[in-house]
Design brief:
2 copies of one chain form a homodimer. The first copy, chain A, contains 11 helices and 14 strands. By secondary structure, the first copy, chain A, is of the alpha/beta class. A 9-stranded mixed sheet of chain A has the order 6-5-1-9-10-11-12-13-14, with helices on both faces. In chain A, helix 1 packs across helix 8. Chain A is globular. In chain A, 49% of the residues are buried.
């Protein structure tokens, strides 16, 4: 049994107040797979790149035990490219350039060996492609997690809405939750979104942490207060990767285990923002990960005994 | 031994997306005293009002066991008045009117019976007046907590800076921490501010919770996700009141106890915003307070055992 990750594998060019990159390796599925690889070892990737994508980047994923048999390499075509510039507060950014390239015609094929998929992470992509992946799996996975963004709410809301009925966990950010629900209060927004299909909703608030909603229960995980947020690109995907990687390894989809998974996801996001692109989450060791999780425990742990 | 609270007792007129009030009772010391009264019983108030201030409001404070002997009532003068309007997101507001009235000449007198002060809460006021209160106490209290705001950083920075060397705990919001330190990162800001004098720093982030810094340690308390924030006025003061009230009752100024105090403060702030002005925190019962604190425990509690 395995974790299937689908999403973009891409080139990014990023500008932040701290510096600027040329084309570096990015993409939702890249961050998700890398972050998940610290928790579970059977990760199958489905994505597409052009023949300009460096073999070393694929080798880097394989070194982290990510199976890339489902990564299509389109000869004579170019890899998806995104370029963006972050503002001083790091909470907002402008997209400078988007070149869909191979993504424009992406037809996801699921290798036969991937059909034992128990956990499915649908990273950010067109909802129609995310639907296709679900259609092409012989059996519905035990848990389906969907990440999406405001762009698809703008141009493909119907497909997204029908997709919501097919997933178990939805992860979006606070502004997207407001857009999708039409409610400013995140508590009200969560109620409306949970009524649209998913059993669990995770609202990511960037430097302000993340909320996990389930029925009328709510769990909050803080973001780690950092001296510098160097590059927020991929933080949400690293969060999703840590989350689903932990769930896939423990095979426990209870609310209590999802709380733990949210903390592991938050830990991976906190690493991701410390350097450009995937640099920080390529070569972590388990001691670093444990120490980081311990920082989260110390950050929120308090001891109050109420006399009932 | 007792808790001494100094700050404004005032009239507010508030406009929010949910409605609008005429002049209602407000003021930092009012919110602080009320919030503290759920945790400790010996609260001494020092403030000033005009003869337009209603006797019923003073009786309301006394009913909560707040000693008002130090509340000066200036005949022929008017109570401090503030009027403000909140924007749709409730995170920003415009001041519509400020009438200092009795506050312009406030000379804080400390009744002899207040001299047993063990815990001092310097609510938001001119730093010169906060200095005077410290000068007029025969003995330095065991713990001095200071609340201030950006207005005093703009017009009385020198007095504020010297005051910081005389206090143990400073509570300010995130924007004020950035202004005072010149640092955007709250971690960097906290390092600079702790070097200015206070041993503990609490940075209040409104709906995004609060951070407690001490040496190189940090504790985070979330805000409770609420369906509606009805009126944010007094939330920070209610937080400070719950915090200092709990510390005064337990007489424990360790970092671990301050964490608990931050949670109790957060609970009082979460009540305060549910209705206009002091309405919600005038008549709570201990079951409601305990239930609310339990919600905070449930909100952040998770169970991760790391194998060292």
């Amino acid at each position: 049994m395995s974790l299937l990750v689908i999403g973009t594998v891409a080139f990014d060019a990023i500008e932040t107040p701290f510096g600027k990159t040329d084309k570096i390796v990015g993409g939702a599925a890249t961050f998700i797979s890398l972050a998940a690889s610290y928790f579970t070892s059977k990760i199958n990737l489905v994505s597409v790149v052009g023949d300009d994508f460096p073999q070393e980047a694929i080798a880097m994923l394989q070194k982290r035990k990510v199976n890339t048999d489902g990564l299509q390499i389109k000869q004579g075509e170019k890899t998806f490219f995104w370029s963006g510039k972050y503002h001083n507060d790091m909470n907002s950014r402008d997209t400078l350039d988007t070149q869909l390239n191979v993504l424009a015609t992406f037809d996801p094929t699921i290798p036969a060996e991937y059909q034992d998929c128990e956990f499915l992470m649908l990273g950010n992509l067109a909802p129609s492609v995310q639907h296709q992946v679900l259609d092409r799996l012989a059996n519905r996975p035990k848990l389906v997690v969907l990440d999406t963004m405001n762009f698809w709410m703008d141009i493909a809301l119907d497909e997204l809405t029908s997709l919501l009925k097919r997933v178990d966990v939805l992860t979006i950010n606070d502004e997207e939750a407001r857009q999708l629900s039409g409610e400013y209060s995140l508590v009200k927004a969560s109620q409306k979104i949970l009524a649209m299909g998913p059993k669990y909703l995770i609202i990511k608030k960037g430097e302000h942490g993340a909320l996990l909603f389930y029925n009328d229960q709510v769990f909050f995980a803080p973001a780690l207060p950092l001296e510098e947020v160097f590059d927020p690109t991929g933080a949400g995907d690293s969060f999703a990767g840590g989350f689903i990687g932990y769930i896939a390894e423990t095979k426990d989809i209870s609310f209590d285990n999802m709380k733990r998974a949210v903390i592991f996801g938050s830990a991976m996001a906190s690493f991701s923002v410390e350097k450009f692109g995937t640099e920080r989450i390529q070569n972590l060791n388990s001691v670093e990960v444990d120490e980081r999780v311990q920082q989260f425990i110390d950050l929120v742990q308090f001891d109050i005994s109420l006399v009932g």
